[in-house]
Specification:
Layout lengths: L6 H7 L4 H6 L1 H13 L5 H4 L3 E5 L6 H9 L8 E4 L12 E6 L6 H12 L3 E6 L2 H9 L4 E3 L14 H14 L7 H17 L10 H9 L3 E6 L4 H13 L6 E4 L21 E7 L5 H4 L1 H11 L3 E6 L5 H22 L8 H10 L1
Parallel strand pairs: 1-2, 1-3, 3-4, 4-5, 6-7, 6-8, 8-9
Protein name: SIS domain-containing protein
Pfam families: bact-PGI_C (PF10432)
Keywords: Isomerase
Length: 355
């Protein structure tokens, strides 16, 4: 596919309607936020001394984003784990949030059983599956939802659910300060950028389409900082799964202490890299001044670069702006490669072999 303005070709390639799920990001966020707010979460959950969020892939992104976003909002220690185990310090004073879209994630289920043995407080988030059965069997609280806003039915395209549900649980338990008004503003931001990056907006006026064209034939190297690292991680995952491309993520200022010396060899690899910098005026001033200098060093090594400047006025809104941008870019890149983004054959092969 050469033109991203052909709606007919897009529809023909996107047989699983991944684009539909991307366009429903706002609906996912709203459904999960309202659903959690209507739940009666046991008071004991609010009394925890620390929080552990367990999940894999897209289901872990809520934890990643909270960790990156909420350093100035967190009222109690919060960590996320993508493993079969919970850390040794988990005990009766720990709230463990188990997030698994399908409800069948082995790592998350194993962590949940371990947390239960430690006497931890547990809350689950899933569409059903074995996690829902585990919660019911052990009489544990959770949010079991119907994914009405995910027409592709692909767990990885239900990002809005996992992110919003975790945010809502933490907010309701008073561990993180996020209000209904802020979520309302976030929904407006998502809707704004969903329209701006829509398939109906011509390529010349669509930054998501233009970025996808820049990334074709390249290895995307994503560069973010602070509150945007979680959303950039989601972008990287979607590039892997939707566009089937290799991609990596680094953060400033950490990369400035090592990565710049790793650009020299192998020399023939430089032509394939494309460094995409996510710039924000809301970063720390010391971080902001490192962006142009880092980009200069990359370009002096004959490596292509690009910038996406976040335009939203608040950190939470920038998180969702970048989520929308990354989702559309990964989708358009899959179109340019002539790939239906829905199937994930190697992940499915791997899971089948583990049975």
């Amino acid at each position: 596919m050469t033109s991203l303005d052909s709606l007919e070709e897009i529809k023909k390639l996107d047989r699983g309607n991944v684009l539909g799920s991307i366009e429903h990001l706002g609906g996912q966020v709203e459904q999960a936020w309202k659903g959690i707010k209507e739940l009666a979460i046991p008071e004991a959950c609010s009394l925890a001394h620390n929080v552990i969020i367990c999940g894999m892939g897209g289901s872990a992104l809520g934890g990643r984003i909270i960790k990156c976003l909420s350093s100035d909002r967190i009222r109690t220690p919060i960590e996320f784990y993508t493993d079969f185990h919970v850390p040794n310090y988990v005990n009766k004073n720990t709230l463990v949030i188990l997030s698994s879209y399908s409800g069948n994630t082995q790592e998350t289920l194993a962590a949940g059983k371990q947390a239960l043995k430690r006497g931890a407080k547990i809350f689950g988030i899933a569409t059903g599956g074995r996690l829902a059965e585990f919660l019911q069997k052990e009489s544990l609280p959770g949010y079991i939802f119907e994914p009405h806003e995910n027409p592709s039915n692909q767990p990885r395209m239900g990002l809005g659910y996992s992110i919003s549900a975790v945010l809502a649980v933490l907010s309701k338990c008073n561990f993180v300060s996020i209000t209904d008004d802020e979520i309302h503003d976030a929904l407006q931001t998502i809707n704004k950028f969903t329209k701006e990056f829509s398939s109906e907006v011509q390529e010349k006026d669509n930054l998501a389409k233009l970025t996808a064209k820049n990334l074709k034939g390249k290895i995307p190297v994503l560069i973010a900082s602070e509150h945007l690292v979680g959303s950039a991680h989601a972008f990287k995952n979607q590039l892997n799964e939707n566009a089937k491309v290799f991609s990596v993520l680094f953060d400033i200022p950490e990369l400035d202490h090592h990565l710049m010396e790793g650009l020299k060899n192998p020399a023939q690899a430089r032509q394939f890299y494309y460094f995409l910098f996510f710039e924000s005026k809301l970063y720390d001033t010391e971080v902001i001044k490192r962006y142009p200098l880092t980009r200069e060093v990359v370009e002096k090594n004959d490596i292509a670069t690009g910038i996406y400047p976040l335009r939203s006025e608040k950190k939470l809104l920038q998180v969702f702006e970048l989520l929308a941008f990354g989702s559309f870019v990964s989708f358009y890149l899959s179109m340019l490669y002539g790939i239906d983004p829905s199937p994930i054959p190697w992940v499915d092969y791997f899971k089948e072999k583990l049975k």
